[in-house]
Structures are given as C-alpha cells and as structure tokens.
Hints:
The chain is of the alpha/beta class. It has eleven helices and twelve strands. Helix 6 crosses helix 11 (about 340-350).
Amino acid sequence: MNALAATNRNFRHAARILGLDSKVEKSLLIPFREIKVECTIPKDDGTLASYIGFRVQHDNARGPMKGGIRYHPEVDPDEVNALAQLMTWKSAVADIPYGGAKGGIGCNPGDLSKSELERLTRVFTQKIHDLIGVHTDVPAPDMGTNAQTMAWILDEYSKFHGHSPAVVTGKPIDLGGSLGREAATGRGVVFATEALLAEHGKSIKGLTFAVQGFGNVGSWAAKIIHERGGKVIAVSDISGAVKNPNGLDIPELIRHKESTGSLKNFQGGDSMDANELLVHECDVLIPCALGGVLNRENAADVKAKFIIEAANHPTDPEADEILAKKGVVVLPDIYANSGGVTVSYFEWVQVMD
Ligand SMILES: NC(=O)C1=CN([C@@H]2O[C@H](COP(=O)(O)OP(=O)(O)OC[C@H]3O[C@@H](n4cnc5c(N)ncnc54)[C@H](OP(=O)(O)O)[C@@H]3O)[C@@H](O)[C@H]2O)C=CC1
Ligand SMILES: O=C(O)CCC(=O)C(=O)O
C-alpha cells in the first residue's frame, strides 16, 4: 500500500478513536507546505545530472517542524508526505516541542562520490534555505544521510543566514552536535523494547532477535541488544542477510561491515535470502530499513511474537490486521524510534540562538 494512503488510514483510525473534530482531522491530513525542487549538479566526469528534492512541512502547532532528510532511489512526494506526518505524531508522543517535517532526494547515494554528494546537498540547501530555519524547520539525518550531510547543509545555510548551528541536528560534535545522537535512535529502540518486554514479563537476555537493515539504527540496536545478552540471530542489508542460530558476534559483524561495506562473506554465520529474514524464526523482529516491508504478502508467515518498528511505517495497515489476528504485538514507530528526535531536541536547545 502507498505510504501516504497507509499513514492517512492509520491517522483516520486514531482520529475516530479519539473522537477528533472532523475539521481538525481534515486540517491535520493536509500538510502545511510541500516543497519540490530540481537539483542539477556537475558529476565528477563533467556531465550534468538532475535530481528531485522534497521537503514536506506537515504541521507546526507544537513548535518548529522537525524531521530527517532521506537520500534513496524510492523517495517520492507521497513517501515524504507520509514521513512528515509521522514526525508530527512522533514529536507529540515524545512530548518535545516540535511539529513534523521530512525531506528527501530521489538518488542512490551509493552511486555518488563524496564530492557529488556534497554538491547535491549544497544545491538542495540553496533551493530550500529560505523555507527552513532554526525556529521554523530543522532537518536531521535519515536513511542515506549522516552527520557529514548535516555539516554541508549547515555550512551552505550559514552562507545565506550567518552561522546557525541549530538549523540542523545530527551534525558532527565539533560543529555543535550532541554526544549520543548517532546512537540515539538505536538506543531508544532498545529502551522501548525493554519496556514492552517487561510488560509481558520478559527481558532481552536470552531472547532471539532478527534485525532488518544494518545502518545507523540497525547496527546500534543490534550492538546494544548483544551487550544486554540478547541473541541477534539474523541481520540483513542491501547485499543480503546473515544468520547464526547461536547468535551473531555483533561487534565483529560491525567491523566486517565497516571494512568491506556489506554483510557478504561474514565468516561468523551463514548467508540467507534478505526477504527470508522477515519471516525467520525469532522472538523479536526489528525492521530498521524501508517502509511497507511487512505487508499482506508476508505478514501471515511472520514467526516473531514481537515486532519493534524501528523503521518508519515498516508495517502497512493490511499487515497490521493480519498480525493482530495472529497475536503478534507491534510496537509503533512513532514511539519505538523516537529516541533520535528526542536527542535531536537536546542538541537543538544547547546551540539555539
Ligand atoms: N537515523 C535516524 O535517526 C532515524 C531513522 N529512522 C528510520 O530508521 C530506518 C533506517 O534509518 P537509518 O538507519 O538512519 O538509515 P541508514 O541509511 O543508516 O541504514 C539503512 C540500512 O537499511 C539497509 N537496507 C536498505 N534497503 C534494504 C533492504 N531492501 N533490505 C535490507 N536492508 C536494506 C541498508 O543497507 P546497506 O547498508 O547495504 O546500504 C542500511 O544497512 C528508516 O526507516 C528511517 O526512517 C527513524 C528514526 C530516526
Ligand atoms: O532527529 C530528527 O530530527 C528526526 C529523525 C527522523 O527523521 C525520524 O525520527 O524519523
């Protein structure tokens, strides 16, 4: 199901439960502002390449709009719209004084050199600099972006508006970033998992975990679960998946991923089809990659008893219904992954002018 259709459907369902006034419901379904810009850059070989960048500002009733910027080939207006809406609900659930926004560029960051990524980020910032700001809309990293991306945005934005470290969060520590922001989303996912398991009389120690995605969120979540005695028995990235029924050596897997760029050829486990990970036998499944990965095609085959939505909207509404009937407990994204935006708030207040 289309990401926006899914998010709108979930919101309407929540609005009905809350008894929300229909006019308020309608106004919250329509974003505050949708920005679409063309970004053309010279590639390293001198040819030109054009990309489309988006920033959707969903709502600012509770404070400046806040949310990450994603670089991924599947970025499209509906997806960014859905992710922006989720940021509004997430900031409210975490009770931090922000509204919601999200941005993205339709590109494959793995195909671009570092200097091409820098030029693309700077052109995107030139196109949107008047519409973001310390008190209006504050970007952060999401899939395919990181502290370096935020440093480029900060630098480019500051050329127009003067030095403004609070215009982005998730930036390098030397530029006013916060200790702990890089790990914050994964760490928050683990705190949320512990709280959920405690309600069911369980703890991380001794349970088995499957983690989809081994980037910022997935690798930190897996590392902390491993430290707390959980058995991470399967992990995936774009290259495929690796499994070990006795538990993967996560610190070793992180070193392997850092040195080779992928999970392939890891000696401490057997390779597995990446799609198989979602239906692999385990106690807890943690999707940490794309949206809509759990859907009507695979939900009935899920073996996990708990799903922690570390990714944004990994479970589409049709899958939610199937999983609920099976008795699988799903911890929603707007709670499970709110550790990242919470530490972004701490970073923002410490450098806000
Ligand atoms: N960063 C943050 O602070 C926050 C992120 N999130 C959400 O968490 C999710 C992950 O974000 P983040 O960790 O930052 O992103 P990253 O870009 O750091 O990592 C994404 C990971 O997903 C993997 N991946 C991509 N496609 C697939 C696929 N089809 N199958 C398996 N793995 C795949 C990537 O593989 P490879 O390594 O091979 O590229 C990578 O390991 C997103 O949904 C994001 O919106 C939510 C809250 C905050
Ligand atoms: O840290 C932030 O501001 C937002 C992170 C984000 O994009 C998200 O929570 O989905």
